């Protein structure tokens, strides 16, 4: 489960503060050094860690003594609210088109879980009263189209394909038209991935974006890749512009550094997290719940 290591270390830090009647600056400094180490070990971005610790210290020093809380509880409260803030504060929801027909464009590097997540998102949307359609725009790997069809079947969602067409812009455009005509209200476009961000991929994605004017571009990243996931998010955001991040494989990520750094580094929120391979293993990301989970 995500954040195991960090959770345990932070709890140790706070246990060290327990029982103290009042906290001196030295106590707080020691605790913050340990918090810093714990965050770095969790693979949180270095700059993010520095700012985080400085902000917690400042608030802890300035905090008014509250009779209802012990000093250690007060520090935990501050860390909790700073962690929540770090991850974006509140749950960032999907934006639906006011017209009633929403286009979601899924982008990401190969192997991050983009195709699986497209299916999970369709399942989630159905649960939330929507009528989604999927579209396979990866023209490079026929297996990717097959995979999306399997995924679509398992979540009872139609998949638009044009197997003989080698132009993803055309495919996406045709899918959009078909989805609207057939009365679907969300089109999820699964685009091609690559091993790394390259100009050709970005040009192709930019062309699709221009044609179908998605209401959301969702970047899928793999939490297990830590800061590489954050760097990918920076790259995609600079070159294409993204609206939100879906962080997959959080179920296997004991560190959690990517989820903690992504919003602060990219300015874009994590909207969903993947918690397993099954089609129902997608959850909206709630920073406040995540922070409480970390602090135990
Ligand atoms: P794509 O190349 O980006 O389309 O990636 P895929 O959708 O093919 O996913 C790659 C692998 O990651 C597959 O084996 C998925 O089952 C797995 N995967 C995707 N999301 C998650 C997740 O949230 N948790 C776990 N444990 N595995 C996932």
Automatic annotation (TrEMBL):
SRP54-type proteins GTP-binding domain residues: 269-282
Tagged with keyword GTP-binding: yes
Subcellular location, record wording: Cytoplasm
Chain sites annotated for binding GTP: 108-115, 190-194, 248-251
The UniProt record lists the keyword Disulfide bond: no
EC class name: hydrolase
Keyword tags: Coiled coil, Cytoplasm, GTP-binding, Hydrolase, Nucleotide-binding, Ribonucleoprotein, RNA-binding, Signal recognition particle
Enzyme Commission code(s) on record: 3.6.5.4
Catalytic activity: GTP + H2O = GDP + phosphate + H(+)
Entry's family note: Belongs to the GTP-binding SRP family. SRP54 subfamily.
Oligomer and partners: Part of the signal recognition particle protein translocation system, which is composed of SRP and FtsY.
Role, per record: Involved in targeting and insertion of nascent membrane proteins into the cytoplasmic membrane. Binds to the hydrophobic signal sequence of the ribosome-nascent chain (RNC) as it emerges from the ribosomes. The SRP-RNC complex is then targeted to the cytoplasmic membrane where it interacts with the SRP receptor FtsY.
Domain notes: Composed of three domains: the N-terminal N domain, which is responsible for interactions with the ribosome, the central G domain, which binds GTP, and the C-terminal M domain, which binds the RNA and the signal sequence of the RNC.
Protein's name according to its UniProt entry: Signal recognition particle protein
Naturally occurring in which organism (per UniProt): Gallibacter intestinalis
Originating gene: ffh
Residues of the full protein shown: 1 to 296 of 444
